[in-house]
Amino acid sequence: MIPGARLILLGRQGAGKGTQCVRLSRHFVVPHISTGDMLRAAVREGTDLGRMAKKIMDDGGLVGDEIMIGLVRERLSHHDARGRGYILDGFPRTVFQAQVLDELTAEQPIDLVLDLDVPRELVLARLSARRVCRDCGTNYVAVGYEKLPWICEVCDSDVMHRDDDTPEAIEHRLDLRRGRHAGGCVPAAGCRRRHHTSVKTSPGLPNFVAANTLDAVAATTLVEAGLG
Ligand SMILES: [Zn+2]
Questions:
Q1: How many angstroms separate the CA atoms of 41 and 173, rounded?
Q2: Over the stretch 28-37, which tens digit does the pLDDT of each residue have?
Q3: Does residue 74 form part of some domain?
Q4: Which CATH number is 196's domain given?
Q5: Residues with CB under 5 A from ligand 1 (ion)
Q6: Distance (Å, rounded) from C-alpha 77 to C-alpha 81?
């Protein structure tokens, strides 16, 4: 029988986190819990939290700790997460969120925090080449000889270069993130008690990254079982 796992995946934008989350989720047969996806679903379904979040986003604000924690708390209480575990993606983002997560997981602690470490130049290249559909949000990668106008294969709308995907804007975001996430681990306070490892990523090698990630998880499990 495949053991479950309770994992947190960290990594800057463009680190390939989404791909790894899907792979890990299949490997361990646990749900991929993405706060971004949950937030969008809550807004779409018009739940109380979703309505609160929508109002904040419509006013141009950032959704705060209270709402994010509410979403995660509710999701972690579900049967699948309590039973086999989960892969948490996009949470915790702040020290406070990490502290609350510590309390929420006191009985079933996180097995491993994985930090996808991707070179800055690679993130820059990936994000500069990113194009996105104006209407449905499908992502594309520009290789330099696309026919223009570029039409979305999913919904026939226009595929655009986002204003904030210019090299300058990306550099700025990376700097902001580095400032906020001193030490590589965002929620440093909350990570202290957990196993924490950094997985190197390489351009265009998602399989290699996945293998390293699984090795890291296996190593932790062995250590916990007193075999490592
Ligand atoms: Zn589209």
A1: 26
A2: 999 999 988 8
A3: yes
A4: 3.40.50.300
A5: 133, 135-136, 138, 152, 154-155, 157
A6: 7
Query: Does residue 168 lie in a domain region?
Result: no
Structural domains in the chain (count): 1
CA torsion angle for 33, 173, 210, 216 (degrees, to 10)? -90
In whole angstroms, give the CA distance from residue 151 to residue 158. Answer: 5
Helix (H, G, I), strand (E, B) or coil at 67: helix
Distance (angstroms) between ligand 1 centre and the Cα of 130 equals 14
Which value, in Å, is the radius of gyration of the alpha carbons in the chain? 19
- 135: CA distance to ligand 1 center in Å? 5
CA 138 to centroid of ligand 1, rounded, Å: 6
Q: Is residue 188 very low, low, confident or very high in pLDDT (cuts 50, 70, 90)?
A: very low
Cβ neighbourhood burial of 135 (10 Å; 0-12, 13-18, 19+): middle
The DSSP 8-state label assigned to residue 164 in this structure reads: G
Contact 13, 128 (CB under 8 A): no
The span from the CA of 84 to the CA of 82, in Å, is 6
Instruction: Tell me whether residue 96 is in a domain.
Output: yes
pLDDT of residue 130 exceeding 70, the answer is: yes
The band of 209, judged by pLDDT with boundaries at 50, 70 and 90, is low
Tokens describing residue 15: 């680190």
Q: Determine the average pLDDT of the residues in 139-165.
A: 88
